[in-house]
Amino acid sequence: MAVAAPSIGKRGGFQLSAKGQERAAGFTFILPALIIVVVFIFLPLFSAFLISFTNWNGLQPPFEAQGVGLRNYERIFGLDGTTVVRDEFFVAIKNTFYYTLGVVPTQTALALVLAFIVNQQFLRFRGFFRVAFYFPSITSSIVIATIFLWLFNRNGVINGVIGGVANFLGLQYSPVTWINDANGIIHNFLRLFGVTIRTAPAWMTETTILGQTIWQWISGPSVTMLAIMLLAIWTTTGTMMLIFLAALQDIPRQLYEAASVDGATRWQQFRLITVPMLRPTTFFVLTIGLIGCFQVFDQIYVISQGNPAGTTKTIAWIVFRNLRDSQAGLGAALAFVLFVIIAVFTVIQRRLVGKTVQQ
Amino acid sequence: MKKSLRFLALAIALALIAVAVAPSAQAAQTVNLVLMGWSSSPSENERLQKIVDDWNAANPDIQVTLNQVPDYDTTLQKSLAGGEPPDVFYVDSFRFLDLVRAEALMPIGEKLTDIDDFYPALRNAFTANGQFYCPPKDFSTLALQINTEMFEAAGLSAPTTWEEMRAAAEKLTKDGVFGVVVPADFARWIAFLYGAGGSVTDDAFTKMTINSPEAEAAMEFYTGLYLDGFAKTPADLGVGWSGEAFGKGLVAMAFEGNWIEPYLKDQFPDLKHKAVELPAGPGGKATMAFTVCYAVPMKAKNPDAAIKFVNYLTGAEGMKAWTDLGLAMPTRASLREGWLELFPNLEPYLNGAEYARKWQFVPGFQAVLDKVNEQLSLVMAGNQTARGALAEIERVGNEVLASR
């Protein structure tokens, strides 16, 4: 049918050249996907961008909202002299930053180690371990968060185990209220050396930068946030492990064989073959880990709702809270700031890790 | 071949037209309404469904479908923003002003029967710009639950003042039991703030009035119970909320709404307890009222039918059918006696209607509520003074009020 049709149709209709026909066919094939992407991704993204310049409250149809120019963005960065939105935003930045700093390196390293282990030929029940490590990742995060809520309960399993071990060692352990402890872990650490808010130097407790004193900036994640970080690490490591595992199996055996012929030790093989060969994968794992961390939401929603004392407020959480509390315009602006932050960090990371990434 | 195809097409087209026309012909007689609400418990859902069924049986021209949705706020937000709101829906007093400002609600109050029968405080919770928008369907207040077994063993009677309450908490804190459970939650502390004679803002919401000696006394009393060791937070006790701590006998007292009663009856049937009004502070008695109304949207397609239905739900008959379940209290003063005959032990909660304050602030105030909760937990952790906390709340609050 399509082969070499005469250039003038019977009814004198418009006829495409062969190249044009190919092009039309190509577009026809991608049309369904294109429509889906445009309708469900680009249009919402674009309308969210427009909404970020309005005072939309989320309760009336969006086109009834009034434009406010850059006001939402000015409030976020405190450029209009107000501090409430700015302070909350920078608290969220601090919390998200500590969260990411704790979760991304830990889960990446852990995932690599686990992948390396379950990739060993001599390991028995490999299939079981692979499934077991991957299992948390396919379970609903809401379900896992609810279970963690129980585990980290003051009378829960975690405190029970720590208390039991401490008891066995003859130590005193007063149960930690994991899900409601606003103390920063760096503050707790400093307290061991007698440094508290009362003994810290004045330049720390009296210099305020963007709504928080230096002492508050260096608090570290709160104990509650730490519990959420542990949860996140436990859940995501499985996915990352799977990615590493696939990459490990892609490394040609000949490389190792050639290396051992040349007299390379196991450690040298790991350092000079495995790690460089995994570089693109590491970049990928770090990137999706980073994006996931900056967007952390469901665990916060279930476990702490930003409490205690605002120490688990993350950027994604305050986006949601503003959308819910009739400040959708401000929420949309925050979401775009988050987008820019993620984009910037991904580029930085690409510069650092991805330098030699091929493709 | 061609002919039969054409005939088939014609037949299909006719069938489609018939299908399309049929319901609209029927709709000329019957109005279909959707009532949207959240679902709090199976027994509550069942009762509401029965009330709706009764209505449908008695009113063939107005047929109502009950739609109880999870994640209510988001669902309502979506349907309002989409311009297709349900015909009747729940509005919490806390969200009310947001919706009024968005011009989402139709003021239907004046069109209802005997509105003077609603408790003034509750009618007031749904009045804005001088208009009564939507009738309160039911309400809850805070009261003090006391563990009668512990009180009798210690030879104490129910506290009626702050001093008595503190003394009781001190005496009852022993053998691993604490006097009272105090969540770091503005929605509880605020009853003490009002009890001390304090206030959050001025009446017109133009500036904060929370940085006052009264508020300081309220905060010192509340957090003092905790700092002196007579009280714990729910999280300290390893429970989800105050009711659970009280039910498990971890504390002798708890201040909660009347929703605690069915919970205790269900989960801790052997617990001996009773409710008393919140102890009076230096400024007198105070409690909080949490209430929800049946609202009709501004863009209602069938406002008359919707108003008629709401009038039934919140009329003496409909409300009695609803509140006789004992979960929430009737908002009509005329139903008081009949309801108390069924639930005499809930009288302290119902008495609160006389002096309760509404749980309602201006749009955008959530940031201030967060700040209060944060400062309360800081004071309770010993990292902040009551005076410092109030100054901080005042600063944030004034900025929020100014930027409205």
In short:
Chain A is 65% helix and 1% strand. With 359 residues, chain A is an all-alpha fold.
CA-based shape of chain B: globular
Give the helix/strand class of chain B.
alpha/beta
Identify the overall geometry of chain A: globular
CATH hierarchy, class of the domain at 84-184 and 220-356 in chain A: Mainly Alpha
Beta-strand proportion of chain B: 15-25%
Summarize the largest interface: chains and residue counts. Answer: A-B, 32 and 34 residues
Tell me the fraction of residues in β-strands of chain A, as a range.
under 5%
SS elements, strand count of chain B: 12
Query: What does the largest sheet of chain B look like?
Result: 10 strands, mixed
Describe the structure.
The complex is a heterodimer of chains A (359) and B (404). Chain A is mainly alpha-helical and 359 residues long. Chain A has a domain at 84-184 and 220-356: MetI-like (MetI-like fold), CATH 1.10.3720. Chain A contains 16 helices and two strands. Chain A has a two-stranded antiparallel sheet. Residues 1-7 of chain A have low confidence and may be disordered. Chain B has 17 helices and twelve strands. In chain B, the strands form two sheets. In chain B, strands 1, 2, 3, 6, 7, 8, 9, 10, 11 and 12 form a ten-stranded mixed beta sheet that branches. In chain B, strands 4-5 form a two-stranded antiparallel sheet. Mean pLDDT of chain B is 90; it is low at 21-27. The chains are: A mainly alpha (359), B alpha/beta (404). At the A-B interface, α3 of A face α3, α4, α16 and α17 of B.
SSE inventory with pairings:
The complex is a heterodimer of chains A (359) and B (404).
Chain A: H1 18-51, H2 71-76, H3 84-118, H4 126-138, H5 141-151, H6 157-168, H7 185-192, H8 202-206, E1 208-209, E2 212-213, H9 214-217, H10 223-250, H11 253-261, H12 266-277, H13 279-294, H14 298-303, H15 315-324, H16 328-353
Antiparallel strand pairs in A: 1-2
Chain B: H1 2-27, E1 31-37, H2 42-58, E2 62-68, H3 72-81, E3 88-92, H4 93-101, H5 120-125, E4 127-128, E5 131-132, E6 136-147, H6 148-153, H7 162-172, E7 178-181, H8 186-195, H9 213-227, E8 231-232, H10 242-247, E9 251-257, H11 260-267, E10 273-276, E11 287-295, H12 303-313, H13 316-323, H14 336-342, H15 347-351, E12 356-358, H16 366-380, H17 386-402
Parallel strand pairs in B: 1-2, 1-3, 7-8, 7-9, 11-12
Antiparallel strand pairs in B: 3-11, 4-5, 6-9, 6-10, 6-11
Helix pairs in contact in B: 8-9, 16-17
